[in-house]
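Example 4.3 (complexes with small molecules)
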Amino acid sequence: MTADIASIRHDFPILNTKLPNGQPLVYLDSGATAQHPKSVINKISEIYEHYYSNVHRGVHQLGDRVTSEMEAARARIQAFIGASATEEIIFTSGTTMSINLIAQTWGRHFLKGGDEIILNEMEHHANFVPWQAIAKERGAVLKFIQLTPDGRLDQEHYQCLLSPKTKLVAVTGMSNVLGTINPIEEMAARAHEVGALIFVDGAQSVPHLPVNVVESEIDFLAFSGHKIFGPSGIGVLYGRKSLLEQTPPFLFGGNMISEVHCEDSHWAQLPAKFEAGTPAITEAIALGTAIDYVSELGFDAIQQQEHVLSQYALQRLQEVPGLQIYGPLELEDRGAIFSFNIDGAHPEDLATLLDRKGIAVRHGHHCTMPLHQHLNIAASIRASLTFYNTTDEIDALIDAIEFARKRLRLA
Ligand code: PMP
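Answer. The structure with 4'-deoxy-4'-aminopyridoxal-5'-phosphate bound is encoded below.
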């Protein structure tokens, strides 16, 4: 199916707004947070207007309705990522929380001195610092897969790092800076050969690439609602049931217990064991609506549009004098995320000038300081696109870059 871009853009009201300076918005920052279709916005107001209540404890009709809608959202997420059971889907506040949950519980419980965790320098701080912290605490050792000059994980080096000491491989499905799509299925198979587990940071990959955790043999997967066209404050941790069952709880309190006595307490079954306290009720339900939107559009259409955009963006960006793109240039190995620098232009100045033309991009280290150190740069500009963007918007970006280059006396 070919994406009908006009009708897709009609679904996202914010894309048709003007900025305070009168410029039409060109939103190229979906990698930071994505915009919302009307169906998600409508769902949120429908809940608050008509049936908002607390979940699980409902002895009334409103409680029953939100509980069943939240569990239906869980089931939709289960199907979306190909998990075997709804108990394997834990609602968290986002990718960061999902990773910390496993680092702080599975990590503290199962890691011991001398165990090894395989990481790499392209990881977002969210999939880096929690492992660094728990490794220090447990006396475990971090090993880093080398990056190739074009920003991929060196698979031969990965193979060399794997050993019976390896307990976990933590890797992103798609780099939030380089756009690199990592070969997760292959990496999972190799990790399992030495008895290690694989934790996949799906923050950037799950909104853009189909995933099947069973077929790819992913042990843990994390992603955020706000990057998949849903609300912020909600996210998902997938864990294989047997692993989650062996893992102690993270937060303690209401909802996660089966019995509490003065001396001791017992934990609830999955998924409640990892969902202490009142969850982000509306957000969880609306995440289900966002997943419906993505599923109805379909990854074929999403990838087709993102492919067209990537091809055009790469071509146009490479025409700009002095512009260097980081990451692979082959379309099949990258997503529609483009980080770059322009000789002589400070990324912050460039981003400020682009903003004057209505172009929303990011600048900075994008929570990947080790990667920026590896690239020997302090910061970069990042344009991240998705299926609701157009080639006209890429032209607008290029025109704005020309405007900035003139202002900075580079042209
Ligand atoms: N991992 C990656 C690859 C990301 O891009 C992000 C968000 N920038 C995160 C993790 C963290 O996501 P969140 O802030 O939603 O927890």
